[in-house]
Amino acid sequence: MKKKSHPLLGIHSLLMMIFIYVPILLIIVYSFNNTRLSGDWKGFTFDWYTSLLKDRHVMEALTNSLTVALISTIAATLLGTLAALSLRNLGRKWKGSMNGLMYLPVVIPDIIMGLSLLVLFNQMHIPLGKATVIIAHITFSMSYVYVVVTARLAGMGRQLEEAASDLGATGWQTFRYVTLPQISPGIISGALIAFTMSLDDFMVSFFVAGPSSTTLPIFIYGQVKRGISPEINALCTLLILVSVTLILLAQFFLNRGKGQKKHKMLPI
């Protein structure tokens, strides 16, 4: 007999959803408001979105964000995947220690990460700019890729790889035709998560960005200090839309990988 949940749990869940999503919904709604006065609805308009395309500073910040996100995602995906593959064969004792080190950028506060990287760049006399932002984003994005790919490897098992080796496949052939297709959904999902984290990051970027490397989150922060405008609401709405889309795509590839695994396990 299925146990019914307590009604208070449902009410608690509803209140939490309202607390989390109502502020986001307000930003989206007022990005279409036909007035600059916050909280005073004067009609529906797309003018604030079209004005973003004409703003040179917004386009510069967008270009910086996309450049940083793209380069850091490629590097983080490669390094995170290689780390997951290499640590897979370690003994239990060393594997636990290395896993802890790889998980550290995920659990450490962003302000500590940003400050530590700032100190490192200063000690190495590296001028702050787009390069330092990319390095910083690779540092924390790599861990997210590692977590996703490691989970995929753990669920894959070694039966197919051992079968390929028994049939005479070389190490490269086994990786190319067996391992890589099995973990590719995890790699794609990890890359999408890394891209999302890089695109949305503010705290770490705030510490390591230079004068000519302002990203969209930093630009939004600077504008909000002068007051919340409809253009900022529109820009935040676009970031929300992109972030949600990428997260849904990442979840889709993860579920697709699980579905492929279950399908291959069915008896013929």
Question: Care to describe what's here?
Answer:
The chain contains eleven helices and no strands. About 80% of the residues lie in helices and about 0% in strands. It is mainly α and about 270 residues long. The protein has a single domain (about 55-260), classed as MetI-like (MetI-like fold, Orthogonal Bundle). Helix 2 (about 45-55) packs across helix 11, helix 4 (about 90-105) packs across helix 6 and helix 6 (about 130-155) crosses helix 8 (about 170-200). The radius of gyration is 23 Å and the shape is globular. The model is unreliable at about 265-268 (pLDDT under 50).
CATH class: Mainly Alpha
Q: For this structure, what is the CATH homologous superfamily?
A: MetI-like
The outline comes out as globular
Counting helices, strands and paired strands, the structural category is mainly alpha
CATH architecture: Orthogonal Bundle
Order of helices and strands: HHHHHHHHHHH
* Helix-residue proportion: over 70%
Give the terminus-to-terminus CA distance: 34 Å
The major β-sheet equals: none
What is the average of the pLDDT values?
Answer: 84
Low-confidence stretches: 263-268
Please report which band the strand proportion falls in: under 5%, 5-15%, 15-25%, 25-35%, 35-45% or over 45%: under 5%
How many DSSP helices?
11
What is the CA-atom radius of gyration, in angstroms? 23 Å
E-strand count? 0
Briefly note the CATH topology name.
MetI-like fold
Number of folding domains? 1
